[in-house]
Amino acid sequence: MAASQGKIVPARGPADFGWDPVFQPDGFDQTYAEMPKSVKNQISHRGKALALVKEHFAIANYKVQNDGSA
Fold it and tell me: Contact at 8 Å (CB) between 49 and 2?
């Protein structure tokens, strides 16, 4: 399970995804909506959860085969 610590602030930035305009993660001066997506994706609970899944698959030596149909 992954979590992100932070605080609720007055809305800032584009309102294009959920709570992003009002959530400011600890250690940052910007809300999720204000920061580059690449930064948000590294520190968000979803990004952290994905990193854990990738780590699990790497430890299990799981190989993904993509036949190009997706």
Answer: yes
CA angle 47–49–54, rounded 5-degree value: 95
Q: CB–CB of 28/46 below 8 Å? A: no
Q: Does residue 24 lie within any of the structural domains?
A: yes
Range of the domain at 34: 6-60
Q: Is residue 68 part of a domain?
A: no
Instruction: Classify the C-alpha dihedral 45-50-52-53 as positive or negative.
Output: positive
* Per-residue pLDDT reduced to its tens digit, 17-49: 899 999 999 999 999 999 999 999 888 888 888
